C-alpha cells in the first residue's frame, strides 16, 4: 500500500469543551450540576497536562463554579493562590 504525502495542510485547532486555556487568575466559569463532575475532572486534567495552571471548584446554586487560581501568565506577578482572597478555603 502506498500513501500520499501532503504538504501545507494546516493542523486543525483543538477545541476543548471548556475554556481553561483562555482563563486568567480570578476568572471563573459556571457549569450546570449535571456536567459539574465532568468539568471539574477536566480542569484537573488540564492542570496536570499544563504545568503552572491551577483550578478550584465549589458548588454554587444548582451548578458548579470553577475558578482559575494559577496560570503561567501571572505566576510571580500576583498571589499564586488567589483562591484565598476569594474565601474558598
Structural features, described:
By secondary structure, this protein is an alpha+beta fold. The chain has one domain (22-86). 24% of the residues lie in helices and 22% in strands. It has helices at 33-49, 83-86; strands at 28-32, 54-60, 63-70. It has a 3-stranded antiparallel beta sheet, covered by helices on one side.
Mean pLDDT across residues:
82
Q: Percent of residues in beta strands? A: 15-25%
The rough form would be described as elongated
Helix content: 10-25%
Provide the structure class.
alpha+beta
Radius of gyration: 17 Å
Number of domains: 1
Sequence-ordered SSE layout with sheet pairings:
Blueprint: E1 28-32, H1 33-49, E2 54-60, E3 63-70, H2 83-86
Antiparallel strand pairs: 1-3, 2-3
